[in-house]
Predict the 3D structure of the following.
Amino acid sequence: MTAPRTPKIPYGGDYNPEQWPEPVWDDDHRLFTQAGIDTFTVGVFSWSLTQPAPDTYDFTVLDRVLDRAATENRRICLATGTAALPPWLAKRHPEVNRTDFEGRRHRYGQRHNFCPSSPAYRDHATAMAARLAERYADHPALLAWHINNEYGGACYCDLCAEAFREWLQRRYGTLDALNDAWWSTFWSHRFTDFAEIEPPSALTEHWRGPDHTAFQGITLDYFRFTTDALLGCFLAEKEVIRAHDQDTPVTTNFMGMFRPLDYHRWAPHLDFASWDSYPPLDAPPTWPALAHDLMRGLKDGAPFWLMEQTPSTTACRDVNPLRRPGELRLATLQAVAHGADAALYFQMRASRGACEKYHGAVIGHAGRDDTRVFREVAELGRELEALGDATLGARTPARTALLFDWDSWWALEISDGPSRLVRYQEVVHAYYRAAREAGADVDVVPVTADLTAYDVLLAPVLHMVKGDLAERLEAVAARGGTVLTTFLSGRVDEHDRAFPTDVPGPLAPLMGVRVDEWDSRARDFVQPVRLGELTCEARLLFEIVLPRGAEPVGTYGTDFYAGTPAVTRNRFGGSGGEGWYVATALDQPGVDWIVRRILTRHDLLGPYADHPALETATRVAPDGTRLHFLLNHAPEPAHLTAHTTATDLLTGKRIEEGEPLTLDPLGTVILRGQ
């Protein structure tokens, strides 16, 4: 099953009419019509309203919300409301409340406050989902099911401890296998009974916080267990929904590059991916772009839904900058360029109370239609209406892929060495940014993905190498492709045990190098690296490389290893393939130099690679039509020369190849090829 079929990009967002008296609903729908809003997400936090007592269900308000939506010809993404407990459930079953990392059982409050291993939670959550599905499966407004909301958090209670032991028994089978995987002879940790195993927390293996553990193996497995425990909650609700509704697509909203949960383990169980985009507003545009491409990669390139974004400002940070005029339109069309088939907001009308009352909304507390934000939302609604179905179902024809691996992320950042200053996201983003700013379309894929479609494979900080990955990377190079990896790659196996061989472990034959030592330094230490005519800066970690077939491309400039390779290239196979190894954390100009050289070899530089503020993306519609997105992230106009003859879908203007093409500040064109 795939995403819902719609005649245009669904436009709207989270709507909580239960927070307002019904006369306000009339104003809401008048304004929604004015803004081109056609889709709502409702019921996300309605559990205490729809089930006010253990044996009492009341769908009166929800009935009116859905019926009114149907009357207004709008569609509903209906949430199960199970992301936050009702107070009576926490009072009646205290074990549904989470126990935190320090071992404290929480009392009722906040949200994401449930223990995923609690039978009481599972029973009540699935009962609610079943009743909703039974009642609304055939409702004319229903478009999709939205289970829970932004799953996250961990619990360390006795129920989770027992569930963890059962999970370990299924994973390892025997204690001998577990002890070997965790290298438990270290510090007298050899277990003789599964009952002896405790969740890794501040009371057991962690002494300086969640990322400082005495045993990486057990902590890594608890991350995996938590992913599976929360996934189990999702699957339980999906199962009861399917008992009443076989046809309506089911999703839950992810959070992009969210470290606590391995979304690749969830992806097969969603009918379509969706996510909530709240990047720091001072982040480069490639940061949300990376998250968009990661979400698209979850379902093998299928379009995703932008389930939430703010129309103006957030309310969850110490400082919450406002989106400037034009930034909302640009961010929305960027999502569409990267594969979004829906554009939804949080929130439709601002809440009057609690912690999100100052969060951005399409409609403010006064209910006005003459605010700048409302006008921008309405204008964008008109553009999406005119765009129609032109982009729906379109896919990205990328020949460059970037590997994104939660296991490597976790293992790298819980490791006591070589450096705690290396951050997985930052390194991955640097290489993604280099490829995107050079004009390459990029698929962000798991390490299990089929790699046969790609000419260039970027695998920065591939700390953990599992299964046959090394052989599949070699196959890319053997047929003439290029594979790049970096420092701290090829270090550990799936259990976070160091390979009993030279670094970079299984990647060494492809890379043609041996790493003998590594020098970890503070952030303020800079090592110059020479790359051709460019001298760039390197920081944090400096691996000392001995070529074993590879040729030096860049060299260190100081210390006893001055003149030794910092970047190497290895010819691999008989078809001209290459393995590139970057032994240090280069600055962005250094990463750009390397990635552009690789892309040029494969004729993958974009036509506007010399315009750093111009983002390009390509999608191919189901009928084969190529759509070229050009997005100007600069506050000044972008003066270009059209690289193809096309029609701009947003204006209807025909553009001839070779003629001048100017994009307004923060402007976008969508070119449909002839």
In short: The mean pLDDT is 96.
